[in-house]
Amino acid sequence: MIQLINVNKKFANGHVALNNVSLNIENGEFVFLVGTSGAGKSTIIKLLMKELELDSGKIIVDDKDITKIKRSHIPHLRRSMGVVFQDFRLLQDKTVYENVAFAMDVVEAASKDIRRQVPMMLGMVGLSKKSKQYPHQLSGGEQQRVSIARAMVNSPSILVADEPTGNLDPEMSVEIMKLFSEINQRGTTVIMATHDLHIVDKMKKRVVEINEGNIIRDERRGGYFSENQNR
Do the Cβ atoms of 118 and 100 come closer than 8 Å? Predict the structure, then answer.
């Protein structure tokens, strides 16, 4: 379970990213964070990853108050989460296989576990035949599949995605979202910040809308816009 309790975050330029935000996300949920640019969506994700520090409030992940953890414990926290970004963030000098294996190398996984787990993840994302290729040889959709495999290879309980379809065409976006849905159905909690209204409307998952640092809507089976909102 993830809990944000009265979270406040203000940047040095005076911009209020989050204003007394409270939010509970149960294990196994799929939650879309929606809102305009600068609304606070990515701030929530960065706070969960400890890339940012909050000004006040608490964030609890799996019964642990991560606002108080030592800096040396942050890598362990991040290993419990998989992260997928809009710009893929793949290592260009490594093959598809090596990019996914790198996530296991970082946590000092045994070689035999890497040899077993990486091919399994590449099979899950449909890239078994491209394991020896490099990122520049792949389409954008294929690169995002590699990043998803990398995010999931250590079997995290939480998958966090920040605009994962932002650089993809609509058809490929649908394929990527099918993957996220399959991952969620296996029990992984998925939290996704997105501007992709078509995806949100189609999937009918929980939607949390943020505006100027405030949660203004939380619907269990929502669309990108509320029913009373002009499109």
Answer: yes
Q: What is the 3-state secondary structure (H, E, C) of 191-211?
A: EEECCCHHHHHHHCCEEEEEE
Q: Is 80 exposed, middle or buried (0-12, 13-18, 19+ CB in 10 A)?
A: middle
Parallel/antiparallel/unpaired status of strands 189-193 and 158-162 = parallel
Domain boundaries, the chain: 1-80+189-231
End-to-end CA distance of the chain: 33
> What distance in Å separates the CA atoms of residue 36 and residue 134, rounded to the nearest whole number?
34
What residues have CB less than 8 Å from 214, skipping those under 6 apart?
19, 20, 21, 40
Both tokens of 128, joined, read 């078994």
**Exposed, middle or buried, 221 (CB in 10 Å: 0-12/13-18/19+)?**
exposed
What CATH number has the domain spanning 1-80+189-231? 3.40.50.300
Separation CA 121–CA 65 (nearest Å): 31
pLDDT digits 0-9 by tens, 101-160: 998 888 888 999 999 999 999 999 999 999 999 999 999 999 999 999 999 999 899 999
Core vs surface per residue 162-192: b (16+ CB within 10 A) or e: bbbbebbeeebbeebbebbeebbeeebbbbb
Question: Given CA atoms 181, 183, 186, 192 in this order, what sign does their dihedral have?
Answer: negative
What would the pLDDT profile of 24-65 be if each residue is shown by its tens digit? 999 999 999 999 888 899 999 999 988 899 999 999 998 889
